[in-house]
């Protein structure tokens, strides 16, 4: 099988660092799916606006050239315990494919074809999308499902210094706070409380430090 992208998403996340590790954890995070020229047909999305959420089958394009590994170390386990790749959502997969459930905020029909406006995304800007499928609540909402080692939502931390975000619109401010509350630092960087990080988000470089379980925004710079 040979597959080609049906489109690409533009999102508020300018790099892999800072992207929520699962969809829906940052509800304000936005994205726009714009279709490839051969799929810019209004008929292809007829009826889609009746659904609140869609599945995106996408490609981990930033790590695809690094191959796959039979075991990985998920951040939820502190980055120091190995599990099987098929028991994870790691990017280092045999076919480099991901699956994301995102909110469908609206379907816009434009001169350049349909555009899907999305919410709660966990995808970096420019991610290729290979398919779109509507979410079916009656079949795919499973209240008694088990979540293994990731049973509960990740803990969140307090975010201060939000006055630094005044240069951003309201939704972008919410994106930054929601994303930083998840502590995006890699496990290896959590032993350096004095270290300042920068993350490309909502068209800005947002600088922050995390110390004593509190994230402090230290500045917002132009990119």
UniProtKB/TrEMBL annotation:
Belongs to the tRNA methyltransferase O family. The gene is trmO. This is tRNA (Adenine(37)-N6)-methyltransferase. InterPro entries: TrmO-like_N, UPF0066_cons_site, YaeB-like, YaeB-like_sf, YaeB_N_sf. Residues 3-144 form the TsaA-like domain. SUPFAM superfamilies: YaeB-like. Pfam families: TrmO_N. NCBIfam families: tRNA_TsaA. Keywords: S-adenosyl-L-methionine. The keyword S-adenosyl-L-methionine applies. CDD domains: UPF0066 (cd09281).
């Amino acid at each position: 099988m040979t597959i080609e992208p049906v489109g690409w998403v533009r999102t508020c996340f300018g790099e892999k660092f800072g992207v929520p590790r699962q969809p829906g954890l940052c509800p304000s995070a936005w994205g726009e799916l714009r279709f490839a020229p051969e799929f810019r047909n209004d008929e292809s999305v007829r009826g889609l606006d009746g659904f609140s959420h869609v599945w995106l089958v996408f490609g981990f394009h930033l790590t695809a050239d690094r191959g796959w590994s039979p075991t990985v170390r998920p951040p939820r386990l502190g980055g120091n315990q190995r599990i099987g790749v098929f028991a994870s959502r790691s990017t280092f997969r045999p076919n480099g494919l991901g699956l994301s459930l995102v909110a469908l905020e609206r379907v816009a029909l434009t001169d350049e074809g349909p555009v899907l406006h999305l919410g709660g995304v966990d995808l970096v800007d420019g991610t290729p999308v290979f398919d779109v499928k509507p979410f079916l609540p009656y079949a795919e909402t499973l209240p008694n499902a088990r979540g293994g080692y990731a049973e509960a939502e990740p803990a969140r931390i307090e975010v201060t210094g939000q006055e630094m975000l005044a240069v951003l619109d309201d939704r972008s401010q919410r994106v930054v706070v929601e994303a930083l509350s998840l502590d995006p630092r890699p496990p290896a960087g959590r032993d350096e409380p004095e270290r300042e990080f920068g993350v490309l988000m909502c068209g800005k470089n947002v600088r922050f430090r995390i110390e004593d379980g509190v994230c402090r925004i230290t500045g917002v710079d132009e990119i």
